[in-house]
Write a structure and sequence with these properties.
InterPro entries: DjlA_N (IPR007791), TerB-like (IPR029024). This protein is α+β, with helices and mostly antiparallel strands. It is built from seven helices and four strands; from the N terminus they run ββββααααααα.
Length: 232
């Protein structure tokens, strides 16, 4: 074997004298949506401490690193911002609650709660995840909503109902593609149209839904007009 060469004949790599190493310690855990795995996984939140190394041996501290999230399955590290993304389970619950709130808002705005509107709303809410939703349940909830807020049926969307819509839709909108946001608005439009053309109060409620979903006013107008032209 030639001097300075390894067994395979390649030049031998000199040992690294100075370097840095990061030591990680767990400071929390939980469940998150892993971008690497593409699904819900357990994670550990890790804090890092850097040290200078001499011949691979840590000798001097060099400060802390930004915390990271380590997936328990794929072991990849991600920035802590990934924890802002809801898990699949949480996202499904948010979507289900959003559709339910929109359905109640549109029914309350409709005033008469016609059977056709209630049936369309119940079908929409069941499809979103409330499997046991019935027409009678929705009718009772709309009446309770009106009694609780002192709201008169068929009046424009009041402050209380607008707040409820924003509370249900604002956290969801950031995680939905434009088509997903439009889909929720159109589901509300179909409920409103089930018993005839939009009333002014229904349009007002749907405009509030669109605003909470960050859909611009022109697009809301376009989508509602297209829904009205589409046979049910």
């Amino acid at each position: 074997m030639l001097p300075g060469r390894g067994r395979d004949g390649r030049a031998a790599r000199p040992a690294r004298i100075l370097g840095t190493r990061t030591a990680w310690s767990a400071v929390g855990d939980g469940e998150f949506f892993c971008p690497g795995c593409g699904g819900d996984r357990n994670y550990q939140r890790l804090a890092g401490h850097r040290r200078f190394t001499l011949l691979g041996v840590p000798v001097l501290p060099r400060g802390e690193t930004a915390p990271v999230v380590e997936c328990a399955a794929c072991r990849r590290h991600f920035g802590t911002e990934v924890l802002d993304h809801p898990t699949t389970t949480r996202f499904s619950a948010m979507l289900r609650d959003a559709v339910h709130t929109v359905a109640l808002a549109v029914l309350a705005a409709g005033g008469t709660c016609a059977r056709t509107s209630l049936e369309t709303a119940a079908t929409t809410v069941r499809a979103a995840g409330f499997d046991d939703c019935t027409v009678d349940q929705l009718s009772a909830l709309v009446e309770a909503l009106a009694a609780d807020t002192g709201r008169v049926f068929a009046e424009p969307c009041g402050a209380g109902l607008a707040i409820e819509l924003h509370e249900a839709l604002d956290p969801l909108a950031a995680h939905l593609a434009p088509a997903g946001r439009e889909s929720i608005l159109l589901q509300g439009a179909r409920i409103a149209l089930a018993d005839g053309p939009y009333t002014p109060a229904e349009r007002d409620a749907l405009a509030t839904v669109g605003a909470a979903l960050t859909i611009c006013t022109d697009d809301v107008t376009r989508l509602l007009a297209a829904a009205a032209r589409t046979p049910s």
